[in-house]
Amino acid sequence: MSLRHKNNNELFTLYDSELVLRVHNTRNLRNDSGLLDKFKGYLNGYPPSPESAKAFRARQETIISLILVGAMKNFGLASGILLTLFSEKAAIPSSIMVVFFLSRTLWLGFHFNKPT
């Protein structure tokens, strides 16, 4: 039976078995299996295709990037508002958060080998 005639459950069982054979690091296997499960949920019963895989990957990376950028902007906005309405001392906590958040974002970029 060709792969085109299999349903998603049969296909993803084959994919999962293939991952077990190819990926020997347990952490990477767990991450890849989790990503495969998310992709299966993203498909919602439709057959996988290269287009859906590209849309899924772009979607995941875009969501994470937008969350990080949004949080960074919120810290910066809070610092600016506090500096404008109050004194420099009032802006210190949010400014410190900006520094820690920026360093954490850079660390995540290096940790996951992705450009920041």
Question: Would you kindly provide a written description of the structure presented here, covering whatever features stand out?
Answer:
By secondary structure, this protein is mainly α. It has two domains: 1-48, no CATH class; 49-116. 80% of the residues lie in helices and 0% in strands. The chain contains four helices and no strands. The chain has helices at residues 8-22, 26-43, 50-85, 88-111. α1 runs antiparallel to α2 (26-43) and α3 (50-85) runs antiparallel to α4. The chain is elongated, with a radius of gyration of 21 Å. The chain starts with 7 loop residues before the first helix and ends in a 5-residue tail after the last helix. The model has no long low-confidence stretch (mean pLDDT 79).
What percentage of amino acids are in beta strands?
A: under 5%
Helix content: over 70%
The parts where pLDDT drops under 50 for at least 5 residues are none
Number of helices: 4
